[in-house]
């Protein structure tokens, strides 16, 4: 099954949304936003005819609200304000809104259709397509959820001007990862852009390429039995960095942790899979310049390893990594020893 994606230039965004929604039959339309995206992003599309009679559900922003309480609040609103199986939910926001809104819709009355309108670069190139929905539970990210694709996803750079620079780069890291899974020309194109943030208004062609990489992979393997694990490149170490920073009261944006994790995992790719050293060094240098570095010391290695042991991809064989033997050539299910992981962390600390 394929994602239905509408890539929309800023000038035609409201017309494109109207023409999409007029092709769908529904009784009531519910718009889910958060307290950030309601004033900053929904405002940009509020003149759409389809939204005149919309019922609004606005949730608290930030990943800490992607929880059972917020979910129950969405269900209560849907239930109390007349949602039926013929209703349509439109999620307008970052990955937090598309994840929880998609899950609320997928479970309400055993499934109400939903449309995603992602407003962050990260949600455009990752969360809003591929059908993963869910919430955090018992301190674990995305612990409860279902695979269920949106009816359609509308992607437009119109919202990028609402993003702080750091949030933009957070999405750019996932784009670099997608380019490494795709082709040398995609990768070379992205790492030759000196100031991607200053080009954000012209970003649609780059976004389109990146989304298409994700869609090709998730179409082939929707339920992450095999190839979809390729999308986890950089995330084994990246998630450990992200959780470690959070536990130390110093949270970092997801994409920054992914960028730093990518450096470690490309190092492992050179050692275990003969990934070309020069391409690893070029990527690492670009990441250092645009994302800075994550401060770790040897005494942190055990804690980082323990966090990696909790990764969802693992089996009883140990910590599972997606690596690359070259650009465009993912190698799945590599079990890497603690000593080798420590070497990658040493390289990260000293080798850059
Ligand atoms: N974020 C990776 C995936 O959707 O599989």
Short description:
The protein is of the alpha/beta class. The protein contains 13 helices and 10 strands.
Word description of this protein:
The protein is of the alpha/beta class and about 350 residues long. The chain has two domains: about 5-160, Rossmann fold; about 165-350, Dehydroquinate synthase-like, alpha domain. The protein has 13 helices and ten strands. The chain has helices at about 15-20, 35-45, 70-80, 95-105, 120-125, 165-180, 185-190, 205-220, 235-245, 255-275, 275-290, 300-310, 340-350, and strands spanning about 5, 30-35, 55-60, 90-95, 115-120, 130-135, 140-145, 150-155, 320-325, 330-335. Helix 6 (about 165-180) runs parallel beside helix 10 (about 255-275), helix 9 (about 235-245) crosses helix 12 (about 300-310) and helix 10 packs across helix 13 (about 340-350). The chain starts with a strand and ends with a helix. The site of glycine has 5 residues, from loops.
